[in-house]
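Entry for the shared binder. Reason: the reviewer on the internal report wants the predicted structure included alongside the sequence.
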Amino acid sequence: MSFAKAQDLLRLARLAATRRTGVGLEEICDEFGVSHRTAQRMTDAMATIFANVETIDGPDRRRRWRVADPQLNRLQPRQDTVIEALEIAGRAARADGRVRHAAALEDLRDGLLARLTPKDALRTEADVEAVLLAMGSVTRPGPRVNLKPPVLDAVIEALRGPFRLQICYGTEDAFERIIEPHGLLLGHRSYLVARQPDRGDEMRNFRIDRILRAHTLDQSFNFAPGFSLQEYAAKSFGVYQDPKQYGEVIWRFDPRAAARAAEFCFHPDQVSELQEDGSLIVRFHAAGWLEMAWHLYQWGNTVEVLAPQGLRSLVEDHRRSDFPSLP
């Protein structure tokens, strides 16, 4: 067995040991980038080498593999990349004002460093810092809205419950609202998706930066039946939603911009169609014309809005021809 295959087998065994329900063939294919047949051979090899491998057939008739009572903790692979990932996530959380998450990530990073010898820990920290200095994305260049850590802490606590949340929204003299949080939409502006019971069952978006105060109440509630934050988010182009604007969106990128536009994913459900004249048609269903207009402005006069008419009117007089480059 080659060293690479041995490393993959050890990694598979650790996955099968640390995941409560074990691992299935589809997960192995995704995790290791291998074919279904190769995934089967890997599970066969794991069952041959380790004596404590269990197979479980789920209700969907798909088999999963789990390592029971693993003794793999003594075999610690190098943690450089893990520590690096935790450091990046921790800095991003602190920059977003998510102090609780940042502290938890830093504690986990410190725990991994503590397992290393002083020499290895020093080398790992130096390597991680070198990578972070080279990654400009960690510093999040460009404008962003500052969020209040106490507000975020209260929101996260309410989501964990779930508990109702009492907020002061907009201005200091605004009346206190009681809402039922269902999720967070994070972006250049971050929104809390919540119901406001005294105004019906409709989901509403509350800008996190406009929540002046938030207090978690000792009142639990039930999430809206069938609500999916992923499906809800897919109805918008950015993070803001206006149900009245939801519908089919069609953009045409002329031949100058078609190749560049083809590299973008404007929406998870988009359909792209290359035209005979070299232009590119992009279609999807979403709301949020203002955020679309902000993005479309960067493309100057290389993009045309075919639908909806409201968005077309919004951008028509603001298409420029003197931008030196495309997004």
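Summary line for the report: The first strand starts at residue 23 and ends at 24.
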